[in-house]
Amino acid sequence: MESLFLQQVVNGLIVGSVYSLIAVGLTMIFGVMRISNFAHGDFSMVGAYIAVFLLAWVPGWMGWVGSLLAAAAGVGLLGILVERGVFRPLLTRWTDLDQIMVSIGLFILMENLAQLFFGATPRTLSDPFGGVTVNMGLVSTSAMRLLCFAMAMVIIIVLEVYLNRARMGVAIQATAQNRTAAQLMGININLIYAVTFALGSALAGLGGVLYGTLFAIYPTMGAIPTLKAFVVTILGGMGNIRGAIFSGFILGVAETLGGTYISMEYKHAIGFVIIILVLLIIPNGLFGRSEK
Amino acid sequence: MALLALALCLGLTLAAPAGAAEPIKVGIVGPFTGSLAHNASEMKKGMMLALDQINGQGGVNGRPLELIFGDTSCKPANGVAAAKKLLSRDKVLVLGGGYCSSVNIATSEVANAEKTPVVVAIAISPTITNRGLKYVFRTSPNSPMFLQGINNWLAEVKKPKTVAFFMENSDYGRDGQKIWEAQCKKIGAKVLDSFYFEIGDTDFTTQISKLKQLKPDVTFNIASTTEAALIQKQAKELNFVTQWIGVGGQFTQAYFKMTGPVSEFAMGSSLEPTKAMKDPVTAAFVKAYQKKYPGSRPGIFSSQGYDNLMVIADALKRAGKLSGNLAKDRDKVRDALKATDLKLSQGAIKFGPDGQVFTVYPSVVQVQLKNCQPDTYIIYPASRAAAKYLEPTPWSKRQCK
Amino acid sequence: MRLLQTQKVTKYFGGLCALKEVSFNLEQGEVMGLIGPNGAGKTTLINIISGAFHPSQGKVVYHGRDISRLKAHQINVLGIARTFQVVRIFKRLTVLENVLTAMVDRSKEGPWKLVWGSFFKRVCAFKQDPEACATAEGLLASVGLLRYRDEQAENLPYAMAKRLEIARALATRPKLLLLDEPSSGLNPAEQNEQIKIIRQINEQGVTILIIEHVMKVIMDISHRLIVLHYGEKIAEGTPKEVYSDPLVVEAYLGGEAHA
Ligand SMILES: Nc1ncnc2c1ncn2[C@@H]1O[C@H](COP(=O)(O)OP(=O)(O)OP(=O)(O)O)[C@@H](O)[C@H]1O
Ligand SMILES: [Mg+2]
Question: How far away is chain A from the Cα of C120, in angstroms, using its nearest Cα?
Answer without folding.
Answer: 9
